[in-house]
Amino acid sequence: MNYIAYTIGPIYDTIFDTLNGDNKTKKLKAGSYFFSLFMKTLLSNIKDDFDVLVPYIGGETLLHEHKMGLFHDRFIAQSNKSKDEIRDIFVAKVELTFKELAKIIQDETKAYELMDNMTNHTIIASQEELKSVDENIIFALNKILDSKELQRSFTLHMPKTNWIQIYQNNAVQKSKVKTIEDMSEKLGFKYYAVITADGDKMGAKIKEEATQKPENIKELSKKLYEFFTAENDIYTITNREFGGELIYAGGDDILAFLPVKFKDKTLLDYIKVLDERFKKYVGVDVSLSFGVNIAYYKYPLRNAINSAFDLLHEAKSNEKIKNRVSLKITKHSGQYFGTTFALQDARYEKYKKLVGGILNNEVSLPHSFHHSLKRYEEAILATYRYENSSIKAMFATVFNDAKSDKDTKGLEIVREYLDICKPQTNTEFDALFSELSIIKFLRGDRE
Asked: How far apart are CA 239 and CA 348, in angstroms?
């Protein structure tokens, strides 16, 4: 058995290169969709020549018109053909794909100019050659592709025309993609959320399921495809139920822009919905981690996205605890504060309830609350250093400046939140204070 793997990545870097400082979600989404369309077209052209393992292309997958960038920036396939046969077939099919894409953009005679706009790498290797890299064929191919992507080639020869930008500009004129303003200012906020997500423990799942038989990866690929497309698909959830814009959803990666609040739901509800959906379709033995950057609506788009990816890396950095979300808000002034939650903890659920209650104006907090909380930091820490302690008595004495029923309800949720967190050190208190400061800021932004 021989294997072929191909990448047009790293896809985000390539898409960013086409933005040229243009702060438009339409242009970014069009770039994402272009690369997905390229991969979808290529897979359609090779599906009868090779046995494609990743991504899933079964059923009518390649016939559907998707509303999002759904196809990953790489594929892996196997074949009983010789390596020379595989190479000859694939070269012809890649050339055909570029012609088809060039024709969609403008003119198929420009196919070679379009090729100059894209980075791509191909691996063709035998099973024996790959097993010398890793016992798991899928791991071996991904390792090699990753190393290839890190060697992005730059040359003094620049293509006369950036055909990807032409595609973007054409797509922007036709599209109805939400702008950052649609997701922030028009909804009463000047901030919006950049949300990135990536699967946890996927390597262990691939190792378990596909080491002996690489073709078993097909079943996992199918589950991932269903996670994105089954029933109420990710596009519908993001764009209609949460008022956001899904930029990319492929493999086990997601990039989306979301308003802080849409109708009665917040970005924290969105995270929970995706996390539960991932477990439902892909497996309870895996999960998602998230990086969330809440950015000012005029902040450079590329910087906002890069910050979200940094937060995703932070969320996934703990080897022992997975399924986390790292959240940060950067104020227009440049001041920032953030936190990291484990999604399965009661702490996240209570925090989500408090954020939702305040942003939906169901509960509130006295304006002096944060000052009082900071003033009594040492007393709070001392209280929680006792076993089975609660701050209920102290709250009734110190935080008694509620001016409405909404204040009373809000203080009760905060008190319950403190009893879950039980901060006993200044570092733990600082993290909790930062979490509550995010809520205070978002409430002030709404006002």
From this structure: 24
Question: Which structure tokens are listed for 408?
Answer: 């009373």
Backbone angles phi, psi at 164, to 5 degrees: -65, -40
Orientation angle between helical segments 346-359 and 267-282, nearest 10 degrees:
140
pLDDT of 157 strictly over 50: no
Segment 176-203, tens digit of pLDDT:
888 898 898 888 899 999 999 999 999 9
Confidence label for 337 from pLDDT (cuts 50, 70 and 90)? confident
Give the single-character DSSP code of 1.
-
Per residue in 291-308, pLDDT tens?
999 999 988 888 899 999
Which tokens hold the place of 34? 């272009």
Nearest to 33 by CA among 18, 52, 47, 49: 18
pLDDT for res 425: 96
Q: In the 8-state DSSP scheme, what is residue 6?
A: E
Cβ–Cβ < 8 Å for 222, 297: no
CA atoms within 13 A on the CB side of 382: 5
Give the per-residue SS3 of 171-239: HHHHCCCCCHHHHCHHHCCCEEEEEEEEEECHHHHHHHHHCCCHHHHHHHHHHHHHHHHCCCCHHHHHH
- φ, ψ for residue 2, nearest 5 deg: -110, 160
Distance (Å, whole) CA 120 – CA 111: 14
Distance CA 266, CA 193 (A): 10
What pLDDT is stored for residue 197 in this prediction?
Answer: 97
Q: In the chain, how many H helices and how many E strands?
A: 19, 12
Say whether pLDDT at 155 is over 50.
no
Backbone angles phi, psi at 212, to 5 degrees: -75, -40
CA distance 5 to 77: 6
Distance of CA 227 to the CA centre of its chain: 14
SS3 label, residue 306: helix
Across residues 143-169, what is the average pLDDT?
70
pLDDT at 446: 59
